[in-house]
Write a structure and sequence with these properties.
This protein is of the alpha/beta class. The chain folds into 2 domains: about 10-300, TIM Barrel; about 320-410, no CATH class. The protein is built from 17 helices and 15 strands. The chain has helices at about 50-55, 65-75, 80-90, 105-110, 110-120, 140-145, 160-165, 175-185, 200-205, 205-215, 235-240, 250-255, 270-285, 320-330, 335-345, 355-360, 360-375, and strands at about 10, 20-25, 25-30, 60, 95, 125-130, 150-155, 190-195, 220-225, 260, 265, 290, 335, 390-395, 395-400. The strands form 4 sheets. An 8-stranded mixed beta sheet has the order 1-2-5-6-7-8-9-12, covered by helices on one side.
């Protein structure tokens, strides 16, 4: 009997600032082995001779356990199980954040096909991230149309030579453009992930051309985030730089990048340099912009950088987080914790019922973790966002909106830490 992936559904630590921190993966492992991938540490920079070798350690998810979680959540059997609490609240799932759901091994196990049936049964809101063209096959597409599915297609460049250097085993540029067009023509909402954007390369220089092309193919939203080189994957960093004939580490040292959680971050001002023109370009072609960069989430057109805020069925995205706080502060000038509590699922089954938080331990702990960060400030708190400034008012911590923070402008330099 084949081994299975036993932990495919869960809540990530991104709940501090993300509207969709509820993740699901069809597989553990991915045969794409993209060099820049944060989840592909074991294989960064290594080219494999064949598909069988790349798929040797990939595990399919236990679909039956996922189905049981759905059944118990919607029958009221949730207890303190955080996954079932999220399911019952219909918080959107991010499908494919760690592993491609439509990689070639799907043809053997058909996990994603079975999950599409499950999503359709419950009309559950799902955001799918993919580079895989299997979703355009008739048996998958017909199910996707019936499901409550929003799709994000990763595409960094229109140059397939660059794509080959970064993503040697993934679908081609033209295949992904065709996928965007097919899904859009079928009535699905499609976004494009320009993740990661690697500054000072053809990815940044040619981004306007990419936006024009994907808009013509029917994409409605662009999600942009700078490359964050993982320090525990030096092989992947080297291979990523080799695609452009540069050293990524030297590039980030030149910009005084800083190390946080074993990743290297560009300074906020450098991210802002590309954000402004790309956001303007998106607006010119009728697309919205999603700011996925740390410190700049509030610069996007939507609270959720994935762009699903206003899609029917996705209303219950996770609101107990920093970007929601920033949206309130932008309107009012200041935001308190009580403002954020009122915003959480105001029309949902549990509403703003504080007793529910009190009586359900694990979900309550998320509120507790976020409340602690709210009071302490620093990383993972609202203070992490460029436009929010921590303050005190009536003996409680509040966050004030800053219109033109200095951190957005060149000249704010931090010491290099890698």
């Amino acid at each position: 009997m084949d081994k299975i992936y036993t932990n495919p559904l869960g809540v990530t630590s991104q709940f501090y600032f993300c509207g969709v921190p509820f993740r699901l993966d069809s597989y553990q492992g991915c045969s794409h082995r993209c060099h820049y991938c944060f989840a592909n540490k074991a294989f960064g920079g290594i080219r494999s001779s064949g598909i069988a070798d790349r798929e040797a350690e990939i595990l399919p998810a236990d679909v039956e356990s996922i189905r049981q979680d759905f059944e118990k959540a919607f029958s009221g059997d949730i207890g303190i199980d955080l996954r079932r609490q999220f399911l019952q609240r219909r918080i959107p799932i991010h499908w494919g954040g760690m592993s491609e759901p439509f990689q070639p091994i799907e043809l053997k196990y058909k996990v994603s096909l079975k999950l599409l049936d499950l999503f359709t049964k419950y009309q559950y809101p799902v955001v799918c991230s993919t580079k895989g063209v299997l979703l355009a096959r008739p048996e998958y597409l017909c199910r996707a149309i019936d499901a409550n599915l929003a799709v994000q297609v990763t595409l960094l460049t229109l140059d397939d030579r660059i794509r080959q250097g970064l993503e040697p085993y993934a679908s081609t540029v033209e295949e992904r453009l065709a996928l965007i067009e097919t899904l859009s023509n079928a009535g699905l909402w499609v976004a494009v992930r320009l993740q990661p954007l690697i500054v000072d390369t053809a990815i940044e220089r040619d981004a306007n051309k990419l936006i024009d092309e994907v808009a013509n193919r029917g994409a409605k939203h662009l999600i942009v985030e700078a490359y964050k080189p993982p320090l525990d994957n030096k092989g992947g960093i080297r291979a990523t730089g080799d695609a452009f004939g540069i050293s990524i580490l030297h590039l980030y040292q030149r910009y005084c990048g800083t190390s946080y959680r074993r990743e290297i971050e560009l300074p906020t001002w450098r991210k802002y340099q590309y954000l402004v023109p790309l956001r303007e370009k998106c607006h010119q072609v009728g697309m919205t912009y999603g700011a996925a960069d740390n410190q700049l989430h509030e610069e996007g057109d939507t609270i959720c950088c994935c762009g699903i805020d206003n899609l029917q069925g996705f209303e219950n995205f996770w609101r107990y987080q920093s970007v929601q706080a920033a949206s309130i502060a932008k309107k009012k000038g200041v935001v308190a914790m009580s403002d954020l509590q009122k915003e959480w699922c105001p029309t949902g089954r549990f509403g703003a019922n504080e007793n529910w938080w009190r009586d359900h331990g694990d979900d309550h702990s998320l509120k507790g973790y976020f409340g602690w960060k709210w009071r302490e400030g620093g990383p993972d708190s609202p203070e992490d966002l460029a436009h929010l400034e921590r303050s005190w008012e009536n003996n409680e911590v509040v966050y004030r909106w800053v219109n033109n923070p200095s951190v957005l402008h060149r000249g704010i330099v931090q010491s290099t830490m890698f």
